[in-house]
């Protein structure tokens, strides 16, 4: 009987929720996965929308505008994302009177300060990526556009930006993967992301190796999926750069 009880013990532990891989823990991992994907996707999307005009303005002849954008990118690329997240979540709470304004509705929820910090951080890096791609536009393309009588705005919209965005794809793909990995710090402001789910399960079952190894595999699957997507986009959009066979 004792041997039979030993054989059935793992199944009983699983049914009672005393095992690290149960429907309850998988539900926790699923919550962490969806929160991570949403946080990264939204911050990247807003950051991309912000970065395109900032990258254009980064090359402006207006020194005040150009230096202001340079200072913003230097500030957010020169400080750790974790510090930016702490400032966004904890720092605003110490502004006098902020808790009596409508802004507190957003600042009191950890999701919005995290989105703010992640968005401003990725927008800074993406601005520099796109600015470099714009600056690397071949001179011949610019001269051809001028020969057609295009205005600066039309040339930027039809010639420079499409060409620059294609060249920026490899570097931007790395930025997307970096943001996915950097999102692992979101749990420090009580967001249940993948790392937060692993930390909870580790504390519940005291099984750090299994809990964090499983999350590492999930991060690897997401990273390789993103890498495959950008490889496909590069193959489609940069086909003209391949040498003729």
Automatic annotation (TrEMBL):
Query: Per the record, a Pfam family?
Result: BPD_transp_1
Q: Which CDD domains match?
A: TM_PBP2
Is Ribosomal protein among the key words of this record? Answer: no
Q: Which NCBIfam families match?
A: HEQRo_perm_3TM
Record keyword ATP-binding present? no
Sorted keywords for this record are: Amino-acid transport, Cell inner membrane, Cell membrane, Membrane, Transmembrane, Transmembrane helix, Transport
Q: Taxonomic lineage of this organism?
A: Bacteria, Pseudomonadati, Pseudomonadota, Gammaproteobacteria, Oceanospirillales
What's the domain of life for this entry? Answer: Bacteria
Localization per record: Cell inner membrane; Cell membrane
Give the species this sequence originates from.
Larsenimonas suaedae
Query: What range(s) does the ABC transmembrane type-1 domain occupy?
Result: 33-230
Output this protein's name. Answer: Arginine ABC transporter permease protein ArtM
């Amino acid at each position: 009987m004792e041997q039979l009880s030993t054989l059935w013990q793992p199944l009983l532990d699983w049914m009672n929720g005393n095992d690290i891989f149960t429907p309850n823990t998988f539900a926790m991992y699923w919550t962490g996965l969806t929160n991570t994907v949403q946080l990264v996707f939204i911050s990247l999307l807003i950051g991309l929308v912000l970065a395109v005009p900032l990258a254009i303005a980064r090359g402006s002849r207006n020194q005040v505008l150009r230096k202001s954008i340079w200072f913003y990118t230097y500030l957010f690329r020169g400080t750790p994302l974790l510090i930016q997240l702490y400032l966004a979540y904890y720092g605003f709470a110490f502004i006098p009177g902020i808790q009596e304004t409508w802004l507190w509705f957003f600042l009191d929820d950890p999701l919005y300060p995290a989105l703010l910090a992640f968005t401003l951080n990725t927008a800074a890096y993406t601005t520099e990526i796109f600015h470099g791609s714009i600056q690397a536009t071949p001179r011949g393309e610019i001269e051809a556009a001028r020969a057609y009588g295009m205005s600066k705005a039309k040339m930027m919209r039809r010639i420079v930006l499409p060409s620059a965005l294609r060249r920026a794809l490899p570097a931007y793909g790395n930025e997307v993967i970096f943001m996915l990995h950097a999102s692992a710090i979101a749990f420090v402001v009580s967001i249940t992301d993948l790392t937060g789910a692993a930390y909870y399960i580790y504390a519940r079952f005291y099984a750090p190796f299994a809990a964090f190894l499983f999350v590492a595999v999930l991060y690897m699957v997401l990273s390789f999926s993103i890498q495959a997507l950008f490889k496909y986009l590069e193959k489609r959009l940069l086909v003209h750069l391949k040498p003729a066979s």
